[in-house]
Amino acid sequence: MALLKKQTYYEKQVLKLQKELYPKTDLVTRIVKAKDHMVNNYHSPIDLDEIAAVASFSKFHFIRLFKSLYGCTPHQYLSYARISEAKSLLRYGESVLATSAAVGFCSVTSFTALFKKITGSPPSAYIRFNKPNVNKAILKR
Q1: Interatomic CA distance for residues 96 and 100, integer angstroms
Q2: For residue 137, is pLDDT > 50?
């Protein structure tokens, strides 16, 4: 008896959109390949021409297709991916300067501005309120 893999909600949504918007699986496969390229290279400078080339689309056609599949532009998606990784790094004690460089920003100022725009607080405040919990039993000894 073969084991069936249970689909996640995300996978179901992608398949639903694929059937509705893109009966040709090749288009969706190319968009997903470009998205994977962004996720795997978020720490490097990536431009739209490079991402569109991975999917073999013109950049304007790629933006339209990407937005219809993921609900945001490739730039927005990359920004959210970078900030998501930055939140992880900050929670585990990385400095704001090291984090901004690690997630692909050349300027701490632009990183801080985007971080605040997406999360609602600057990285320094995020660090203060999201420190890893220290085992309180150890402190009582």
Answers
A1: 6
A2: no
